[in-house]
């Protein structure tokens, strides 16, 4: 049975509010699992979903639907992006912080897997790609693959952190060593 749009919107709005409060990207897989259980048991989330899905299907729907889209939604991409305040400005904010003033993003080039966009500063052009530290391997792989396929543009890898949960100094150093080894530029940006 299909979940009505108004119910879906209310449930996802609640999920995303909770995810923001919990700083979702910094939680461990075990913490994610525990939160899925809480949501399924919550009358405002699982209670609404159980009108259309079994409890186990509601958990899968939450995990493989809205929460799989969470990081993309924060960047203004995907089905639920309109439920995240200020998300559509994320690529431009990242470009300013990672690249400096004068860089403009071309929103028509915004892509996912990994999140990336073309940024320009007059005649200079670069690909800005971003993820939390847990997604760094995907950024590196995408940049190396593009280079191997003939893309001569610089890729700037942006590890996104939060003010409340910055990347530890030893991890930052490890990230920089990896980027240097691969001939890539990497920056850490707090949003």
Name its key features.
191 residues, alpha/beta, Rossmann fold, 5 strands, 48% helix
Task: Note down, in words, how this protein is organized.
With 191 residues, this protein is an alpha/beta fold. The protein has 2 domains: 81 residues; 103 residues, Rossmann fold (3-Layer(aba) Sandwich), CATH 3.40.50. The protein contains 8 helices and 5 strands. Helix 2 crosses helix 4 and helix 4 packs parallel to helix 5. The longest helix is centred in the first third of the chain and has 18 residues. The chain is elongated.
Supply the CATH class of the largest domain: Alpha Beta
Query: What is the element string, with H for helices and E for strands?
Result: HHHHHHEEEHEHE
Shape: elongated
* Total DSSP helices: 8
Strand arrangement, major sheet? 1-2-3-4-5
- What is the number of domains? 2
Major beta sheet, specifics? 5 strands, mixed
What is the annotated CATH architecture of the largest domain?
Answer: 3-Layer(aba) Sandwich
Give the distance, in angstroms, between the N- and C-terminal Cα atoms.
38 Å
Oligomer: single chain
List low-pLDDT spans.
none
Helix content: 40-55%
**Count of distinct strands:** 5
Structural class based on helices, strands and sheet pairing? alpha/beta
CATH topology of the largest domain: Rossmann fold
What is the gyration radius calculated from CA atoms?
Answer: 18 Å
Determine the strand fraction and express it as a percent band.
Answer: 15-25%
* Overall pLDDT level: 92
């Amino acid at each position: 049975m299909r979940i009505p749009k108004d119910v879906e919107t209310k449930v996802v709005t609640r999920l995303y509010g909770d995810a923001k409060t919990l700083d979702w990207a910094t939680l461990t897989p075990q913490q994610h699992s525990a939160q899925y259980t809480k949501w399924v048991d919550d009358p405002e989330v699982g209670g609404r979903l159980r009108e259309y899905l079994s409890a186990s299907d509601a958990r899968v729907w939450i995990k493989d639907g809205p929460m799989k889209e969470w990081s993309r939604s924060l960047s203004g991409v995907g089905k639920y992006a309109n439920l995240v305040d200020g998300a559509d400005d994320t690529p431009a904010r990242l470009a300013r912080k990672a690249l400096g003033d004068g860089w403009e993003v071309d929103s028509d080039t915004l892509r996912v897997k990994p999140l990336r966009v073309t940024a320009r500063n007059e005649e200079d052009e670069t690909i800005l790609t971003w993820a939390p530290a847990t997604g760094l391997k995907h950024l590196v792989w995408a940049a190396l693959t593009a280079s191997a396929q003939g893309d001569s543009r610089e890729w700037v890898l942006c590890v996104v952190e939060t003010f409340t949960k910055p990347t530890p100094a030893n991890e930052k150093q490890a990230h920089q060593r990896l980027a240097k080894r691969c001939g890539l530029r990497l920056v850490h940006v707090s949003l």
